[in-house]
């Protein structure tokens, strides 16, 4: 795992998880014929880096009293305006269960950041709209959030960020088109 837990140009930060995963990879590479070091290394680096970034960015939202999932709801709703977003669409965009979406919306509604309404076109459809309080909260969070994103990724050049984005998109599309489920 090259610089999986890296911090700038000073080299990798030593930590327990990195050591654990490298040790497991060495062990499995000797015991499983199907083991492919570059593939497993990439997967571990993706998961580990996601966790490090997610943890760092979650702190900013939590300082304002919302979870990252609630912050994501507000980000999605900010694109829907007065019309609101159907609950089922929120579930698709958030990639969480219907129960989780309902719980998130319940919490945001209790805090006055969103409101529910029925669709005028289809009474079976429940819409969610961001309130003025939700929009104000989002406006307070975004400058710091985008600053954190920029700071967290400052170890990569603009070209490296572009290349990595392109490669991750290519990887995601390949995984999606393969579509086979594993029998774990």
How would you describe this protein?
It is a single chain. The chain is mostly helical and 184 residues long. The chain has 2 domains: 14-63; 66-146, Winged helix-like DNA-binding domain superfamily/Winged helix DNA-binding domain (Arc Repressor Mutant, subunit A), CATH 1.10.10. Helix content is 63%, strand content 7%. The chain contains 7 helices and 3 strands. Strands 1-3-2 form a 3-stranded antiparallel sheet. Strand 2 and strand 3 (126-130) form a beta hairpin. Helix 1 runs antiparallel to helix 2 and helix 4 crosses helix 5 (98-110).
List keywords for this structure.
184 residues; Arc Repressor Mutant, subunit A; 3 strands; mainly alpha; three-stranded antiparallel β-sheet; globular; 63% helix; 2 domains
User: How does the major sheet shape up?
Assistant: 3 strands, antiparallel
**Percent helix:** 55-70%
Backbone shape: globular
Stated plainly, the CATH topology of the largest domain is called Arc Repressor Mutant, subunit A
- Under the CATH scheme, which architecture of the largest domain would be assigned? Orthogonal Bundle
How many β-strands, per DSSP?
A: 3
CATH level 4 superfamily of the largest domain = Winged helix-like DNA-binding domain superfamily/Winged helix DNA-binding domain
Just give the CATH class of the largest domain: Mainly Alpha
* Beta strand %: 5-15%
Class derived from helix and strand content: mainly alpha
Number of helices: 7
Pattern of helices and strands: HHHEHHEEHH
Total domains, how many? Answer: 2
- C-alpha Rg (nearest Å): 20 Å
Residue stretches low in confidence (pLDDT < 50, at least 5 long) are 3-9
Compute the average pLDDT.
87
* Distance from first to last alpha carbon: 25 Å
Can you list the strand order of the major beta sheet? 1-3-2
């Amino acid at each position: 795992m090259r610089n999986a837990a890296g911090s700038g140009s000073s080299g990798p930060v030593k930590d327990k998880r990195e050591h654990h995963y490298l040790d497991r990879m060495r062990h499995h590479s000797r015991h499983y014929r199907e083991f492919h070091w570059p593939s497993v290394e990439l997967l571990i680096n993706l998961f580990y880096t996601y966790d490090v970034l997610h943890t760092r960015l979650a702190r900013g939202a939590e300082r304002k009293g919302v979870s990252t999932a609630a912050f994501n709801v507000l980000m999605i709703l900010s694109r829907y305006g007065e019309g609101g977003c159907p609950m089922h669409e929120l579930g698709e965009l958030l990639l969480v269960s219907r129960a989780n979406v309902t719980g998130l919306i319940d919490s945001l509604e209790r805090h006055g950041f969103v409101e529910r309404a029925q669709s005028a076109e289809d009474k079976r459809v429940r819409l969610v709209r961001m309130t003025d309080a939700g929009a104000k909260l989002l406006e307070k969070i975004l400058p710091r959030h985008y600053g954190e994103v920029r700071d967290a990724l400052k170890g990569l050049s603009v070209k490296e960020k572009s290349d990595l984005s392109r490669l991750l998109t290519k990887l995601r599309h390949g995984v999606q088109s393969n579509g086979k489920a594993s029998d774990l």
